[in-house]
Amino acid sequence: MDFQLTDDQRALRAGMRELLERRYPRTRLRAVVDGDAERGAELDRALWRELGTAGLFALRVPESAGGVGLGLPEAVLAFEEAGRALLPGPLVATELAAGLSGLWAAGGAVPGSLEARLSGVAAGAVQGETVVTALDEEGARTPVEHLTSADAVLALGPSAVELIPAAEVARAAEPMRSVDPATPLHRTESNRTRQDQAGPGRSGIAARLRREAVLLTAAQQLGSASRTVELAVDHAKRRTQFGRPIGAFQAVQHLCAQMLVRAESSRSVVYAAAVTEDPGDIAAAKLLADEAAVHNARDCLQVHGGMGFTWEADVHLHLKRAWVRAGQWQCAAAAEEELAAGLVSTVERCL
Amino acid sequence: MDLAFTDDEEDFRHRLRAWLADALPTLPDRPHPADWPGRRAYDCGWQRMLHDAGYAGLHWPKDAGGQGATPTQHLIFLEETERAGAPYVGAGFVGLLHAGPTIAAEGTPEQRARWLPPILRGDEVWCQGFSEPDAGSDLASLRTRAVRDGDTYVVSGSKIWTSHAEIADWCELLVRTAPVNADAPKHRGITWLAMPMDAPGVTVRPLRTLAGTAEFAEVFLDQVRVPVTHRVGEENDGWRVTMVTLSFERGTAFVGEVVACRRVLEALARTAKANGRWDDAVLRRRLGRLAAECAALWRLTQWNVSEAQRTGGVPGVGGSVFKLRFSQVRQELYEAAAEVLGPDALDAGQEWVADRLSSLSYTIAAGTSQIQRNIVAERILGLPKGR
């Protein structure tokens, strides 16, 4: 057992951080957020292509299919960095769609209806040429992100998997005024997927894709949760009141310490889930990473005081994105129910 | 990142599991918690069994009589013994986890030969004389004095919260050998001594805890004579000697209890199913959340152990993070238990009620949560020194 990052994994994480600092600096984030409300949130296709060229979507695609051939732990590290930088866009769905191309190339159990659309969409997703967003039809109706910027929608029913042209979904969708200025959202009618096509092989793929989506979303939450610790600590060192940095006050110190505890304990389970791919680990990862991202953003806002309540500070952007992600894929109630069910699956003595 | 075990590690686990299956049925009944002589005999008997089977001082270095196991093997040992329901280290706690490793690291060859083998065999029990009434979290403020008189130190003062003092043979004692002055930090001038508990002038007064039993004691020291040869490390260097080993165990100190948390939680869920409380979605979800917390604590433990294995035992961020989270989760677990059990929660005759009460000490012992947060803020996050 060596549950630490390998040198290659460290290099990958550092490379991803460096890439995002260069290609998606704070000025670019602010341009999206502070710009024209209509145009501002439109996805930057050039950036998407750069991410594709850098291999973000191809990380898990086998080398035989033109990918990088790495695994879920590497994807989790990359997505953690994306979350840290507040990179906008349907990253998870595009990554999953790109992954399907590998399955297809390997002659895996890909549903028949998928195959026709796959070659184009999935190959485009690998390159960053195609933008794929997602429609999760299990549980509560989740809004679709970046629908008008997307080419295709990856729709996951309880067992069915579909790739639907985005325009088709958009016709019956209603735009929301999204709480997150960098993530446009649409309400859609439910049950887009044709449940009658469900089969055992497909059901397996839907479940696997959903687990991966949950984990990659948790990874982004972890990145955001770690970033807000840094933002809070930096502010607490610089801001002075009563003649000393506010970070010298125990009340502020304890807020920051609790933020670190949240971030680091969710990190351990997010990383473990990437290695084990165990549904229980994945549910725990999402639950704790959601909590860490949301609560850390709120505590970070508190440490920033009045500044934290302004549009100018980035804190609210972390909080709002964390809210959006917490509602995506497995939300808290579903995760807690899954974990509770896991507790009674084994038979032993009572208290 | 790899959570798979090597063939050697798996082999170690299987041999241990087989031994536990044979050894545990031969154990006598557990003594009542208030029966201190019985507890000593039971815990030392178990240590003797471990010793004879080659598991004593598992993670101690070989030249100190230990097995030189890796942190991962130690993790496996703690996980398997807890799963099998084996006894906890109990009365051997201070000797095996603190005083012993300190002597192994800092003691002379004579000191190692005198004190280490009886600890490993379960022949001698140690207690920890660190805390004082006015020096708890602020340990360096201790005032128990030792004055040199020829080849002995004459020690006077008092210690508190001393677990196992009633049955201990030896005490790892921190004493002040130089007065506090304005020019030097107060942790200079402290010396580490091994004090025999049967020396004239040592008085032990048990302290009754809120659980109703005497888990620890006050120790009064009146002109106790301790030979200079019992000093480990240099005079006035006791703080450093202590720090060598104080943080050493953070990665693995609570492994057994993390495994136990999950077991208690599963038992709780089955009880809720049996008594109908499971139908309460709020309570059920609360148990689900605790399952996530247990998973995170377990993964954090594996992370910390792997880090220790790579760095040779230098503790990182993980220790304080773990302690803060674990102590809180442990208390939340028993709060949830009370909700599942309803009126039975008020029956102190139930075994788990004692665990609920003892969980209250977790946010206080070994550095309160408040002090831990200060440590995290100042030493890990680099915030300015607080007030």
From TrEMBL, chain B:
Membrane-spanning parts: none
GO molecular function: flavin adenine dinucleotide binding; oxidoreductase activity, acting on the CH-CH group of donors
Pfam families for this protein: Acyl-CoA_dh_1, Acyl-CoA_dh_M, Acyl-CoA_dh_N
Acyl-CoA oxidase/dehydrogenase middle domain mapped to chain residues: 127-224
Domain Acyl-CoA dehydrogenase/oxidase C-terminal, residue spans: 236-381
Keyword Protein biosynthesis annotated: no
Annotated Gene3D superfamilies: Acyl-CoA dehydrogenase/oxidase, N-terminal domain, Butyryl-CoA Dehydrogenase, subunit A, domain 2, Butyryl-CoA Dehydrogenase, subunit A, domain 3
The Acyl-CoA dehydrogenase/oxidase N-terminal domain, residue ranges: 6-123
Listed GO CC annotations: plasma membrane
Cofactor(s) annotated in UniProt: FAD
Family: Belongs to the acyl-CoA dehydrogenase family.
PANTHER family the record matches: ACYL-COA DEHYDROGENASE, ACYL-COA DEHYDROGENASE FADE29
Name this polypeptide is given: Acyl-CoA dehydrogenase
